[in-house]
Amino acid sequence: MAYKDEQLHEEKVFKDPVHRYVHVRDRVIWDLIATPEFQRLRRIKQLGTTHLTFHGAEHSRFNHSLGVYEIVRRIINNFQDRPHWNEDERLLCLCAALLHDLGHGPFSHSFEKVFDLDHEHYTQQIIVGDTYVNDILERVRPGFAQDVADVINKTYSDQLVVSVISSQIDADRMDYLQRDSYYTGVSYGHFDMERILRVMRPKEDQVVIKSTGMHAVEDYIMSRYQMYWQVYFHPVTRSAEVILTKILLRAKHLYEKNYAFKLQPTHFISFFKGDVSLEDYLRLDEAVVYYYFQLWQEEDDAILCDLCERFMNRRLFKYVDFNPNEQMDDLSRLSELFRDVGIDPRYYLVVDSSSDLPYDFYRPGEEGERLPIYLLMPNRQLKELSQESDLVEAISGKRRTDHKLYFPLDMLEQMDDHHEKVMEIIERLGY
Amino acid sequence: MLTNHAKLLRFFVEAKEVTGRKKLQKMIYILQVCGIPFGEKYRYHFYGPYSEELSLRMEELCNLGFLEETIEDKSNYIQYHYEITDDGVRFLKQFSLEMPEMSKQIERLQQQSARFLELVATMLYFRHLPPQKVEEKVSIVKPKQNYSPKELREAWQFIDKMVQSFLV
User: Fold this and answer.
1) Tens digits of per-residue pLDDT, A314-325?
2) Which residues, at least 6 apart from B66, have a Cβ–Cβ distance to it below 8 Å?
3) pTM, to two decimals
């Protein structure tokens, strides 16, 4: 029997708190899960620093990847024998679902920002490069790995396959909303996924929703909206991200200035140099990052030492809402006062904006801007969701955006000079 | 801090106005590929390279009153129009940005249709491939657009001119 058709003797299942069970029958999927590149995802948290706000959020990219695979498996089962769906794409779709986040590194967002990296680039590299994952995919047929990479990159010829994995209502989002909700313990993020799966229809080059399922989709859009503001954009999590980013920037700066680290930052050197090979990238996981942060608390550099101590012991920056249109003068004045007393504002006074975060909202947008969610009406016509749903129209209209100013209150309280002046400004800003 | 916001405002000072979100998305992408250091991350989407970060940042700039967004109802679709405001110009003055001169290139982009810029942006997205493969890839990912050989030729010429203009 060809490798692509090989089935396990009996179905394997992973117990999963969100989907109850994740079912695996294909040998290829089982083998992919066992690769070191996929197992590495166990050591990368799905929500990065969110566990410092919601202590339960310790789940990994491994959990999420299995979850996305499971949802896609169910979608495909429902698509069987429906027009427009090509059953030959089944295994390709499952592999792409399983591997879609393979290139994520530890604390991806901060690493990408500081070192100008792109996890999607590494996802592609792991799939088409010299890896265990690639060996397995190429055993299916030569060129199969490239097809999986193209699906994940959204440049595959069959856009319907792409749309199952990645669209405004896709398996990726449906899994992470429910999973993140479960592990953070918040009461948002719930929606009737079973219902959505039942009303999903393959239609030429995209997945559409049978109009009778509109209310289930409304619920999904609401969950998405609430999770963004209550969990993903949480100001305390953003404080931890700010500190993490500043640690990486400081360590890079010190390296460039030939600072003599007590512990050679071997695993970081290629990141500092901007020349990260796939091997270097795969060697770094959260355990390694924490190891360095732990030891950098003993460094002589006061800033690196302090920032690492803050991150490790959750001594985070405080924050106030900040309006860049009205309060830039206050920011400039604060920067001056910080400098006067020897606090470097580049590390200790930070404006963070909602656009700095990697999550997106549902937006119908303009024609040709981004593919919206379409409802399949009884007359077989397609209608964009917000044209039919008042609720979706209301929350996808004018957007809420947000800017915060982060600062180390504990340091300010210990200032001998300028303390009153600084606090006056901070209080005027709303603290 | 807010430097990426300022860079976009600088673009709007040069562009004066932009009509169409899709056109804006592709203009910023093309300029970024040509070396203008815009900070927005792009991904490939159904209609070519698209940046969610850019969409969010535009919303922030509008909410802050630095850009004015007007909406035009074109009967079967909505079109957005953007212009920088006095507040936006004032905010920008606080930054000393090191950005290459780009007014001529922006003017050249402004003269093109959103459909053409979608083609150019998509071709640039596959720039790591040989030209023949780029065209094959465009026909694979954009079968409905049905770009003609003439449009492809014009897109290559446009890319050459854009790249050359930044080298001079």
Assistant:
1) 999 999 999 999
2) A325, B5, B9, B84, B85, B87, B88, B91
3) 0.94
